[in-house]
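Hi R.,

Here are the chain sequences for the assembly we discussed:
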Amino acid sequence: MIRVQREDFDPAAELARFSGNGAVGGVCMFLGLVRDYVGEATDRRQDVSAMTLEHYPGMTEKQLEAIEAEARRRWPLEDALIVHRYGRLEAGERIVLVATASAHREAAFQSCHFLIDWLKTKAPFWKVEHTAQGDTWVEARDSDDQLAARWGQPAPDRR
Amino acid sequence: MIRVQREDFDPAAELARFSGNGAVGGVCMFLGLVRDYVGEATDRRQDVSAMTLEHYPGMTEKQLEAIEAEARRRWPLEDALIVHRYGRLEAGERIVLVATASAHREAAFQSCHFLIDWLKTKAPFWKVEHTAQGDTWVEARDSDDQLAARWGQPAPDRR
Amino acid sequence: MKVLYFAWLRAKVGTGEETVVPPEGVADVAGLVAWLKTLSPGHAEALADLKLVRVAVNQDYVGLDAPVKPGDEVAFFPPVTGG
Amino acid sequence: MKVLYFAWLRAKVGTGEETVVPPEGVADVAGLVAWLKTLSPGHAEALADLKLVRVAVNQDYVGLDAPVKPGDEVAFFPPVTGG
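And here is the predicted structure of the full complex:
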């Protein structure tokens, strides 16, 4: 299941759905949050007060559904969930939740990892960070391309 | 932090601890549950009504602490948690929760995966499955050794 | 034909969505881009370096050689940064 | 010296814990195992195939050549199956 929404979500309530099926041996979940800084080196960090996530309504849902379908083709999943927010998000707020459930832990882990890696390079979202120095569109990172590429097929976003 | 306990735990409450730190960009969580069957092929499955987890009090905590410390050495973690139950568990019940929080999603994912893989081959727990055909001690799987070995150092349990 | 712009492309073009009627010779994305760049300095700037731009036709990623036709929804945007 | 048995080793030995005083010549895990096997048919059966048995001394995994001394806590158990 996929959901794209402005409002916050409750990871606990989302997780509760995954526990009811007796065939599930492992649930893997990833939760992405707004950090309160950008930049890696401590002396180059800038405080981030908030960010705004723009998206392409319609295409976002279509791409997320395609990514979920691909995960279900590759791994034997009992359940899969992607929830992604858009709009203005303050530091510390939840951005994205990805969760998978399978009979086996390895399938749960790999499929969850795959979902977030592909989502990062395929789902049409764009972040603008609000800092004391002004607003900056976040640039896509080569490292995200590499992380997505290890799952076999290059992300079509970058071909 | 590690905890070994007979009573159930609440993944939501455990997760809530991870959201307070503004340096956290990603949280990865794995939840292990008691499946209601054993065996892979559908025609060879046996219903499992419950299992009992025996452990080695003292050594369990020592090993889990060592595994957590190793994860913190290898990845820049803001937080790490292992909760593992023992005693009798019915089908569908929670067994283990592993969660990690980091500035970066890849570190969160890898460290969480590492923790459960090492735990599986190092933490002194033993499962006995209760089926209609009687009680059976679960045998360790070579696949678990292989999954643990990919993290570099062979699990000392199997040397 | 509906054309959409997102993120900094939207800011440069000055609008997020416009309905256009390209001349008859425009049959693929590359041709559409060349024509859109003639519409305004903002369009020209947004589409100046196509290495920085991704294209979707009817909400699927496509390359510059993909066909476009009346009624299509064509979107231009930078590499995505969600998650 | 405290000796612990877990899982099916406990069932075969018939107890989960015993205090033993090995003869003076017993200085390592291999020597301890050889001596424990003389205590009862259950001990002998539990420790018959050491490929199936893991050993910890004072709660650390060790090999058969690890030293043991009075006061140590020595545990025998099958490969672990938690998680």
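Chain B is about 30% helix and 35% strand. The longest strand of chain B covers residues 46-55.

Let me know if anything looks off.

Best,
T.
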